[in-house]
Amino acid sequence: MSVKSWYERKYYGEIEDLPEEEYDVLVIGGGIAGIQAALDLGDMGFKVVLVEKEPSIGGFMYKLSKTFPTMDCASCIATPRMAQVFHHPMIDLLIYSEVEEIEKKGEGDFRVKVLEKPRFVDSSRCTGCGQCELACPVIVPHEYDWGLAGRKAVYIPFDTAVPRIAVVDLDHCIYCGQCERACPTEPPSIDFTQVPKIHHLKVGAIIIATGFHLFDARLKENYHFGEYPNVIHAMHMDRLLAPTRPYHAILRPSDGKEPNNIAYILCVGSRDKTVNNPNCSQICCMYSIKQAQLIMGALPLADVTIYYIDIRAFGKAFEEFYQQAKDMGIMLVKGRVAKIEQKENGDLIVWYEDIENGGKLCKAEHDLVVLSVGLLPNKEIANVFKGQKLEVDDVGWIKPVDENANPVETSIRGVFAAGTALGPKDIPDSVIEGGAAAMQCAAYLSEVRGRH
Amino acid sequence: MVRVDPSFVERVKKLGAFDITACYNCGNCTAICPLSSEGHEFPRKLIRYSILGMENKVISAPELWLCYYCGECTDTCPRQADPGGLMMALRRYAISKYSVGKIARIFYDKVAAAFSWTILSLIALIGLVMFMNPNVSASEMEQNFPFCFIGKEFIHDAGLVLGVIVVALALVNLYIMYRSISLGYSRRAKGSVGLWVKNLVLTLIREVAAQLKYTKCENKLRYIGHMSLFWGFVGLFIATITGFLRDYYDIMIPPEVSLGLGVIFGILLIYGSLYYMVGRFSKKEAYAKYSHHTDWVFLWLLFLTGITGFLITIFRFMGYPFLTYVLLLVHLVVVFDLLITAPFTKFSHAIYRPLAIWLSDTMDQLAREAPGEKEAVAEVSQ
């Protein structure tokens, strides 16, 4: 949803225009790449502003269970970094805000309009105690758990949210005022009179770290995602496996049974021209193998089968990780699943061609099917540039000026990109690109400001 | 040992499988196919054979003729490599290969085909004109219209000769196909005559008369279209035979029967051919995205056969002798073109498809009864 439509739909009052603020660098996106870029620039002594559209920074990584191939706890790595960026003296955060417009006036001079959405909670007073959450009578699916668990209409985004401040979801709020009465601060932090604010920023350079969109598995109609309850996508499973998981168990949605025969279908929404994404998403093979290994730990008696086209274990220690999965007894079947049928008891039948065993036409029964969905570009950022065009490739990923020699500089000089805004990639590569973009940014600023 | 032959797929591509080399071998097509079955998995295997250039494997595959081009593989192919289009192109290729002396290649080459069809039409026209009888009395004209200028006897004689030639050619082609397909089976299957006859009858009922395999495709309108086309043609053939029997052997079949059959099956033929022509023109469905010139020629010949026959009857009763006469000439030329080229054009699928089904059914059955002799019949692992 664009900022404008959000604003038109939800708020009918005034917009508060704030005076111009000046920063060295604007970082758009508070995921792991944006955090890395902001931290590196802050440490170099640049004044950085980090814009995040969600109510908490963190991006995708804090939602994950483990990282591959090292099996480190993802949120244990992400959370300290989030806190670090929050407390950094050189970094300001604009949380729950979206960049509306960027205009380049000259080298090292960008004028940016950022719309800060109202949280309806006074962030200077809110202590993050969660009393409002307990009082609120409205329960809706929680985005953090991909809808597996619920949240209230006023909620703290998640346990380790940064900043840990409640936010009111006006879409679902029934204006009963119970949160306001429950709030222990004096006066209550819940403030329904908040209005959207426009921040006018003057920045020297910009780093785009807006990340990706997850492929909408409903578009693959033969897999009946959203129709058959026991067809879930891999981010659901990652939540089910995470230390902060919703049920403290792996349960299948239809009847809450513990699954004991789980199928993974790779390349859902990747390498698929029928959904206009011919590219490999690069991470699905490995996160599926990671999850399969975690399932072997969580459900020792379960069978896990991965249906693949090719296993692309291309990074450091990936191949060993893949071989380890095979040694653990995870079944790997070469053959793309063509369709899924549901049985009366909610079990699922997958149809595939067993290519490595003579190309036999096979069907297999599973009680849970996990779709390893791919990554799609976040196309919105290209529309905010006024007067200049941000080059994107055929699919919509930001196109760097030179894929080999200059992979983080975009077609607009002074605008850099990092992480999955440039293309699908894993966490270490995103962090590397965050650092690279920060470095290039610093070099650019030194050059245009004549600090040689 | 297989010798990789990259030129093979290039030849096949020219027949309509333009994007097939985009295939990345995922098996989606085989798994989605409603007609692919245990022991006869396609199209992925045929894609591999084609890309590697294993021509013998392709020619000996009965699977070519078990595919009815529903188009589900093409619609869901993640590489948009058009597997259904490859199957169609391979059938075109196989028709050339099975034909005696590979004559059919002429009709699959645009220039040669246009040339041959012109020559054939001219031969038919000149023949008809040569045997015309210009001195017709008024009474005979009254009595025998419209067969007064071109004698019925001549048409019947010519028809018989044509029939014998076409059947002989078709039989030779069928034998070549039989030899090719038996190559795909590790040992020459024998089996009892009874089994072969039983399966032949079953094939004729199930797959020729009712075409049950076609019903597995999702689009039932296409099945109805194909059935009208098939039965329209067969019905018109029967109507022709009734006329022939009446005139030659004086078997008392009332002319109304021939006329009635002609009208009913004529409408079916016209509907069927129009359905496919509209389909191929609008290019909405996978099978119609690309039409080879042989597809169009076949449809046009069928359509013209039906429509001219129909109009002859109408004009005859309305009393337009000149129009009737011209249309009769056109009709005869079109029918000649359609029949003489039948064993070498798309028409021949009418004989190859039943033969392939009959052979594969029977040989599978034999192989199943003698286990370990045929690898193609494999158990499905659940």
Give a quick precis of the structure:
The complex is a heterodimer of chains A (452) and B (382). Chain A has 452 residues and is an alpha/beta fold.
Structure description:
The complex is a heterodimer of chains A (452) and B (382). Chain A has 452 residues and is of the alpha/beta class. Chain A folds into 3 domains: 19-117 and 196-211 and 378-452, 3-Layer(bba) Sandwich (FAD/NAD(P)-binding domain); 120-193, 2-Layer Sandwich (Alpha-Beta Plaits), CATH 3.30.70; 215-375, 3-Layer(bba) Sandwich (FAD/NAD(P)-binding domain), CATH 3.50.50. Chain A has 9 helices and 23 strands. Chain A has helices spanning 3-10, 32-44, 74-87, 131-135, 178-182, 234-241, 284-298, 318-327, 427-449; strands at residues 16-17, 21-28, 48-51, 91-94, 97-106, 109-116, 139-141, 150-152, 154-155, 167-168, 197-208, 212-214, 231-233, 261-268, 303-308, 331-334, 339-342, 348-354, 360-366, 368-373, 375-377, 385-386, 415-417. In chain A, strands 1, 2, 3, 4, 5, 6, 11, 22 and 23 form a 9-stranded mixed β-sheet that branches. In chain A, strand 17 and strand 18 form a beta hairpin. In chain A, helix 2 runs parallel beside helix 9 (427-449), helix 6 (234-241) crosses helix 7 and helix 7 packs parallel to helix 8. The longest helix of chain A is centred in the C-terminal third of the chain and has 23 residues, at 427-449. Chain A is globular and about 70 Å long. The model of chain A has no long low-confidence stretch (mean pLDDT 93). Chain B folds into 2 domains: 6-98, Orthogonal Bundle (Fumarate Reductase Iron-sulfur Protein, Chain B, domain 2), CATH 1.10.1060.10; 101-361, Fumarate Reductase Cytochrome B subunit, CATH 1.20.950. Chain B is built from 17 helices and no strands. Chain B has helices spanning 6-14, 28-32, 44-52, 55-59, 63-66, 72-76, 83-98, 105-108, 110-130, 138-144, 152-183, 193-209, 220-249, 255-282, 293-318, 321-340, 349-369. Chain B is elongated, with a radius of gyration of 23 Å. The chains are: A alpha/beta (452), B mainly alpha (382). Chain A binds chain B through residues 222, 267, 271-274, 278, 309-310, 334-339, 351-355, 357-365, and chain B through 24-32, 36-38, 41, 44-45, 75-80, 375, 378, 380-382.
